[in-house]
Amino acid sequence: MTDITGTPEWQALEADAAALKDVSMRSLFEKDPGRFARYSIEAAGLFLDYSKNKITEDVADHLIALAMAADLEGARERMLTGEAINTTEERAVLHPALRDFSQRDYHVGGENVSRKVRAELAKMKSFADGVHGGERKGYTGKPLTTVVNIGIGGSDLGPFMATEALRPYWIEGRKAHFVSNVDGQHIADTLAAVDPETTLFIVASKTFTTQETMTNAETAKQWFLSHGASEDDIAKHFIALSTNAYAVKAFGVAEENMFEFWDWVGGRYSLWSAIGMSIALQVGFANFEKLLHGAHAMDEHFRSAPLRENMPVMLALAGVWNRNFLGIGSHAVLPYDQHLHRLPAYLQQADMESNGKRVTKDGEAVQCETGPVIFGEPGTNGQHAFYQLLHQGTDLVSADFIAPAVSQEETGDHHEKLLSNFLAQTEALMRGKTEKEARAELKEEGYAPPDIDRLAPHKVFPGGRPTNSILMEKLTPETLGALIALYEHKIFCQGALWGINSFDQWGVELGKALAKTILPELAKAGEEKPEAEGHDASTNGLIDRVNAVRAK
Ligand code: F6P
Q1: What is annotated as the active site (predicted)?
Q2: Number of domains in the chain
């Protein structure tokens, strides 16, 4: 693909941005009563309103033209037909195959992978049913009521986020814990809270080589064996979710306790695979399947809707407009649902590990900005923390507001209050408050003219902060599945437009390699170590300082 920034479509959008520089979003709403209907889309149980972006018909047309110039439709086709679009790792990217319950078959390198998907799902179901039905018991004959999922990155964030999101669907009496950090306090705190006789450990790792996960898994195994369990009992209490059968066996997990997925499932796109076992155990397999169905409904929409009516495409294009033409480098994810409290963390990996890239697929430096910084918190907590900067900071930040119209747990008037905040924030971010309005307000409040002069600048809100609103009726397994798939496809579309490979993550390697070098240079408690050398002065100095304290 030629550099997208050199195309006439890109230049048309640059001209649009220049023409709209002094046009307020407020005036766009005042001039066009049809704006909400024109810039909203309903699909797969979700409703997206992207009208509070500085988008006009020209902009929308030019964004679609840009998508055509980037051959977005072709890229989508190549992904869905199993082409090795992850070019640096020579892998297909087929997470939609994990949740396709139609008769459609997916192929990778000539092999029908749908059969394997169905077989693995059946194996997961039988295991989950066995645990729930009490046929699978612990080493002392007690039922397995507790799960400890040991994994990190995609092997933690997805299942943890979804399990939390589906709290109202938890099976009574069951508890899932998630251990990710190599900080020993994480596993120690968790082990202190569980009973070895009733706990099932899930070692979740695509590669089964990740330092954090293997260290935590080994600690969990030793803890288990120190509680009167034998090596043979490991089979009853440890299962593995991985693509690496060899390493799973070497760790001591029997073949029948390994649930497989494949190299065409990216770690951050894997919660639909065996990696979702902790979700299935906590909410039941039927609800796990509903999650997959919800995602599939979004896949079908993404696959077939015309670009202008396609929710992931338009969400992606609004993001490209904000990022590349309005210079917005940060994007907030703001779920107004406490159960979605891990969604921002999940999307940080999904988006930033996918699109935090600086070279194109061909290895050329990209000529435009790529993925933004993603951050967020549930509303309303974020309002009392960082929204000040969203409203009045010097940087523009775009945001997604996400809410169910009906809460799973309607309590008094909490939900109306929550929603009023959601709606008010998007309105305030769009409208802002002019100096004239600020002054009139201060006058109304009885301030004297000098005080009005002094305070007015602080009370001005520039407005024009772009937001998307994503509504659903309720947060259910189906709508959650659709929501996650929406973001997956948004990320895919943006990566395709920027011409980058969204499916590798070489950027995590350098730090990992250096940590391996540093590990043997660090003192165990009470150990003396020679002065560090071979690093820069800062790193040597820090190693020496840490070692001096640890030697005491
Ligand atoms: O951070 C790098 C990464 O490879 C992620 O992409 C992945 O989700 C995570 O590590 C965990 O990897 P694994 O599932 O192989 O343990």
Answers
A1: 353 (proton donor), 384, 512
A2: 3
Report the C-alpha gap between 258 and 222 in whole angstroms: 20
* pLDDT tens digits for range 299-354: 999 999 999 999 999 999 999 999 999 999 999 999 999 999 999 999 999 999 99
Question: How far is 119 from 125, CA to CA, in rounded Å?
Answer: 10
95 catalytically annotated: no
pTM: 0.98
N- to C-terminal Cα separation, the chain: 60
Based on the domain organization, do 537 and 394 belong to the same domain? Answer: no
Q: Does residue 401 sit in the same domain as residue 421?
A: yes
| CATH assignment of the domain containing 399 | 3.40.50.10490
In terms of domains, do 106 and 244 share one? yes
Query: Within 6 Å (CB) of ligand 1, which residues are found?
Result: 152-155, 205-207, 210, 213, 267-268, 353, 505, 508
Same domain, 435 and 393: yes
Is the ipTM here above 0.95?
yes
Q: How far is CA 6 from CA 12, 116, 494, 500, in A?
A: 11, 43, 17, 16
Q: How far is the CA of 481 from the centre of ligand 1 (A)?
A: 21
Domain containing residue 517 = 507-551
Confidence of residue 1 (pLDDT cuts 50, 70, 90): low
Whether 384 is catalytic is yes
Is residue 458 situated within a structural domain? yes
Q: Which residue lies with its CA nearest to atom 10 of ligand 1? A: 153
The structure tokens listed for 85 are 């679009």
528 is catalytic: no
